[in-house]
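User: Can you recover a sequence for this backbone? Please restate the input before giving your answer.

Assistant: Of course. Working from this structure:
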């Protein structure tokens, strides 16, 4: 069974951005149709390649490159050749080419990674955007999914079977990078620990071009690595086999909005809720711009804290009972507004995530994330810095992790009792430096209070030291050993910022 609709949307986005990029290139008059060295040399191979390709120096190259990241900021790194294979077999061809030509290979599934790890100087960029297939085995509650299948596509295909999966909180994030780096998705405390813990097996193209199935019984060390290595993985995943879950019958949410001056109370409420370990519930806090503040309000009054609980219940009664109990906490009376017991749904939340009227919008963005056991201190440390954020889109996401005993058969090995993410978002290229500097300031305040960091949402190009902090002392060197074993000739691009 193939889900093409998400691909059509992806193609629409690609086309729009590609079109804008192409117009820009034409206007600048800077790109003529000419073949580069790589393109000349590889022309016969490219003619046979089952998929599309563009080489540096060719007319469409800049618009293709510009369309690779999900966001509007494109890192100034240029691969020699971009390949978009149309099948898993073509992926193996591309890996063999890369090895023969001694060109290192970087991989992209959805292009959401904040470090844009898929963009490297030189070598080949393998864009897996065409691989969006899905095969569902409803009886055994499993599915094989390809790496570019969007979160929303998976939810939509599972819904008629009464099944679900802890996909990312944004409709467009696909399976590829999300699962490799852990995956903190919907209902994460109740459906596995991280989404990668629900990967039962995977099909991987190795550096020698061979395609293997990895599972607990087949290439177990590769299976260990792909469940958490993120941007440090040394193979191409062309399919994952997922453990699915029974879809909730009733999803309800309650949210309480606190003035920013009451951040401490909001944090205490979130922590009290987490300690009560409510059934089937996902908890979070968002620090965001307050759109209701009058223009002459102070900087602090332009910010707010929203504490939110979503219950994935087995019935309306069960969901309402959990939320009703949480809403009775005395600290909720200090909120300036509350929106309680609202019916919602997995698909509804997923669609809302890309609704420009409801979300925090799109644009240029940069992120740093930590795991911490000292949430109140982190909130105190970042509070003034957040008030000083120049962009109204800049926000923090705070998510308690109630289920955090990590299995040893996965490289994902760093966790704390709360996830904190600093997300700066802006529109104009002229504001890049100011926003990157703001994020650096946020990192400097958060990191001393961290137990570790989250590989899916850190930028190794800006600071390679962050990578090691995403893994335990045992997992980090083990990943290096396995990389040497499975990719002895360095076919795959190294960790971001390290080579
Ligand atoms: C809007 C938005 C919402 C997000 N929401 C969440 C969320 O709710 N929870 C969460 O945990 N994270 C979230 N993220 C972070 C997300 O998990 C990471 O950005 C992840 O890397 C995205 O996956 P991708 O396929 O787009 O990766 P890409 O950017 O395409 O790839 C990043 C790197 O991952 C590796 N990679 C990707 N695919 C493959 C493959 N098939 N085989 C081998 N290596 C591969 C490569 O090293 C590649 O360079 C979000 C990001 C964004 C932009």
């Amino acid at each position: 069974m193939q889900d093409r609709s998400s691909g059509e949307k992806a193609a629409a986005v690609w086309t729009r951005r590609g079109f804008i990029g192409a117009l820009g290139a034409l206007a600048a008059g800077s790109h003529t149709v000419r073949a580069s060295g790589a393109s000349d040399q590889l022309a016969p191979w490219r003619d046979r390649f089952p998929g599309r390709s563009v080489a540096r120096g060719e007319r469409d190259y800049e618009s293709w490159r510009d369309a690779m990241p999900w966001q509007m900021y494109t890192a100034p790194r240029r691969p020699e050749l971009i390949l978009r294979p149309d099948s898993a077999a073509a992926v193996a061809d591309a890996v063999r080419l890369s090895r023969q030509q001694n060109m290192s290979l970087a991989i992209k599934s959805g292009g959401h990674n904040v470090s844009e790890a898929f963009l490297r100087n030189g070598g080949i960029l393998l864009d897996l955007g065409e691989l969006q297939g899905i095969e569902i085995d409803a009886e055994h509650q499993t599915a094989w999914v390809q790496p570019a299948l969007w979160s929303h596509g998976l939810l939509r295909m599972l819904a008629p079977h009464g099944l679900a999966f802890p996909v990312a909180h944004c409709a467009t994030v696909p399976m590829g990078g999300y699962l490799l780096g852990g995956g903190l998705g919907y209902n994460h405390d109740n459906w596995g620990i991280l989404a990668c813990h629900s990967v039962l097996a995977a099909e991987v193209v190795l550096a020698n071009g061979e395609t293997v199935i990895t599972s607990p019984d087949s290439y177990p060390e590769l299976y260990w690595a792909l469940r958490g290595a993120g941007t440090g993985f040394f193979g191409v995943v062309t399919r994952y086999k997922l453990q699915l879950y029974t879809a909730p019958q009733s999803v309800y949410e309650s949210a309480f909005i606190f003035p920013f001056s009451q951040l401490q109370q909001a944090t205490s409420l979130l922590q009290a809720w987490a300690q009560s370990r409510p059934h089937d519930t996902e908890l979070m806090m968002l620090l965001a711009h307050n759109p209701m503040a009058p223009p002459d309000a102070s900087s602090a009054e332009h910010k707010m804290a929203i504490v939110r609980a979503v219950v994935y219940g087995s019935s309306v009664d069960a969901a309402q009972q959990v939320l009703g109990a949480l809403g009775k906490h005395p600290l909720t009376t200090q909120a300036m507004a509350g929106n309680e017991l609202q019916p919602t749904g997995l698909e509804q939340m997923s669609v809302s995530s890309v609704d420009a009227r409801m979300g925090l919008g799109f644009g240029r963005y940069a992120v740093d994330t930590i795991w911490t056991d000292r949430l109140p201190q982190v909130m105190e440390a970042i509070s003034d810095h957040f008030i000083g954020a120049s962009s109204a889109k800049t926000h923090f996401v705070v998510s308690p992790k109630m289920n955090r005993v990590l299995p040893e058969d996965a490289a994902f090995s760093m966790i704390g009792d709360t996830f904190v993410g600093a997300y700066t978002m802006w529109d104009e290229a002229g504001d890049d430096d100011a926003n990157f500097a703001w994020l650096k300031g946020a990192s400097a305040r958060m990191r001393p209070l961290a137990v570790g960091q989250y590989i899916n949402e850190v930028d190794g190009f800006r600071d390679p030291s962050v990578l090691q902090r995403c893994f335990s002392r045992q997992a980090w060197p083990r990943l290096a050993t396995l990389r040497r074993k499975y990719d002895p000739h360095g076919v795959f691009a190294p960790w971001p910022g390290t080579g």
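That completes the design. The pocket of flavin-adenine dinucleotide is lined by residues 70, 106-113, 117-118, 128, 147, 168-170, 173-174, 176-178, 180-185, 231, 233, 236-237, 456-457 (CB under 6 Å).
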